[in-house]
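Re: duplicated header lines in exported structure tokens

Our pipeline writes sequence and tokens for each protein into one text file. With two proteins the header for the second block appears twice in some exports. Here is an export where it did not happen, for reference. First protein block:
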Amino acid sequence: MLAAAAAAGLFTTLVVAPTAHGKVIYPGTELPGTKTCPNGTISWHNDAQEGRVIRTQIQESSGKERCEFATPQGQVSNGQTIYIGWKSKLTAVPSSNDWNNMFQLKCHGTHVANYPLVWSVNGGKLTLWNFEDINGQTKGRQVWQTNLPQNQWFSILLRVVYSEDRAKGSVQLWFNGTQQTFGNGSKTHFGQTWDGANNNMHWGIYRTARINGTQIHDIKKPTVATTFAEANPK
């Protein structure tokens, strides 16, 4: 019976499309180098809650102080949509209102908007900024803000559409797993997110010389990927 049915062409072949998977651009699973950490240390740290994490720690010095690690250049491109996710814990952040940053989207090559997206940790606030090339000068806009969590873990996931065009570049934010609504009532902020020839990401601590004292930023699994699922902090 089955042979006769097959011969008669009564059976069809079921073709199942392969499941699409995102690409992890930067996995954040290895201890990064210290090329962009002239004023501190980068090391593994065993956290009681999250296990092994990357610890960046500022050591007091003259001038502005920087201890960051960076993704390689050339991994992302203008016009691309990416997701950036990680968990942070900040310890001993001074209450100063002077600039003090824990993350930046960084431009390289000839550019005006040196750092289109920045997370600042000053004045007791955690703030997302968008810096753009406005008539040849860098101008910043506040995108989102909340009270700065200290000595506790929080998660950030960004969906970034790269563009030099202020009307085409955009960012969306999930904070502690919940998508955020910005001050304009929208879940999407439009603005310039790319400048120069190459862009990458920096995590750690970068602060003005006017801030003194020890400061620690612990980071769990900083990840850059092409899908939400691959970058989602866990």
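Second protein block, exported in the same file:
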Amino acid sequence: MVLVVARRLTSEEKPIMVKATMEWYKSSFCETAACLEAAPVGESAIAVRNNAHPGERHLEFDRDGWNVFLDDIAEGRFSNL
């Protein structure tokens, strides 16, 4: 199971701004503007965004959820999509 750490903020919380210095990575197989990019967020999370719209919101996965997602890809669980 992949855990997405995306939720509505409470009134006491402020949105986290993506730093311009985040280092985004995309697959070497990406040949179009329709790819996902990933970037580490500290040591506890991975941010994922659409590279066609880099200024828009991104999703964050905790490291365990991200690793499960990568394992599922390696095992071909999304090959029928």
